[in-house]
Every structure is written in structure tokens, then in C-alpha cells.
Amino acid sequence: MAQQDTEQERAGSSAVLPVDDEGFVIDTEDCEARETAYRERGTSRPITVVGNPVLHKECKDVTEFDDKLAQLVDDMFASQRTAEGVGLAANQIGVDLKVFVYDCGDDEGVRHVGVVCNPVLQELPADQRRLDDSNEGCLSVPTAYASLARPDYAVVTGQDEKGNPIKVRGTGYFARCLQHETDHLYGYLYIDRLSKRDRKDALRQMAEGTPRYPVVPND
């Protein structure tokens, strides 16, 4: 009985998200219930930090959309909450797979919750490339922040945790999150997009700070 209840709970929380008239997922509905269901099934894992090889190479494509992937997604939501993050890529908990989760607000204060496997960031037409030069941080570079210009609109295509094709779009802070997490899965941290001087400063901030969540020390 309990096992059946658990399976039904997972099926409900991992249901295919509805889409709008343009085919983009509607990830703004039932956010609290969906995030809670993922997180409460998961186990929080420590965060991998800059310097670990898994963060500095392109991750493997997801090819098996099975219970193992579902458990990974649950653990990622639990880990994201522990670290008080708004997005988390699988390699940030040491898993070499192209998956990220997010629980992020946009500049209008609207909450977005979802999962993207095998994400591809779409190239924007020139007329849509308005840069936002805001501060950015990363759970894998704890306690450090730096200003980084990114487009204030982003579109990511990929698959959900069931393997269904999806499109996700975001503006403002959420657009930054989508770009940041997709970067992770191709081996880039935000500090890799900074000038040498700003990157050095971010690493100094990290060295001088104390993470507020468990991390995996580099040997």
C-alpha cells in the first residue's frame, strides 16, 4: 500500500507540464506542491565546487528516462533547497548527465519550477538580444559574486524527465538562470565568462568565504 502510494505520488508530481499556445511549458502552476513533492522524496547531496573535473567538461546526454533519473531529479531538488539555490545542474552534485532543475522567480516575481534534460540554448535574433549586466553567483563558486552581461531573454529546448520534448523560456533573472544552468552542462561556469581580473576576484571571494551548505572539497 505504501509503495503504491509513493509511485502514485511520483507519477502525479512528474506529470507532463501543460504548454501554451506557442508550445512553451507552463511551469508557473502548482509550483509549491510540485517542488515539495520532488524535494521530500529526495536526499540532499553536497555541492561540487570549482576545480572538480566534472564541472569542467561537457556532460553526457540523458538516454535513459527511468527511475534512476527520477531519483536524481528528486535529489537535485533536495540539494537545491539545502543550498538555497534557484537552479542546479547534475554535475554540481557530481553526476555526469545533462540535467538541470530550477525553482526561480523572474523579474515580475513569478515563480518557475521545472526540469530540463539535454538542454540546448537557442540563438536569439539580434533584435531580441538586450543585455542585462547584473550580479551573478554560483553554488559551485560559493560566497562569490560578479557582474556578468547576459541576454535578458532565453529559450531552452530539451526534454523533461519522462523524455518528452519541451521548450522553456524566461525573462530577466529567470533567463539568466536558464543560461547559467545550460552552461554548466557544457562544462562552463559563469566565472569562465569573466575577464581574468574579475575571475581572479571571484576566486578570491570564494577562498575568503565560508559556504553555508555542505560542499565536496577538492583534493
From TrEMBL:
Keyword ATP-binding tagged: no
GO terms for MF: metal ion binding; peptide deformylase activity
Amino acids binding Fe cation: 138, 180, 184
CDD domains the record matches: Pep_deformylase
Keywords on record: Hydrolase, Iron, Metal-binding, Protein biosynthesis
UniProt key word Iron: yes
Protein purpose: Removes the formyl group from the N-terminal Met of newly synthesized proteins. Requires at least a dipeptide for an efficient rate of reaction. N-terminal L-methionine is a prerequisite for activity but the enzyme has broad specificity at other positions.
Similarity comment: Belongs to the polypeptide deformylase family.
HAMAP family linked to this entry: Pep_deformylase
Name of the featured protein: Peptide deformylase
Originating species: Streptomyces himalayensis subsp. aureolus
Gene: def
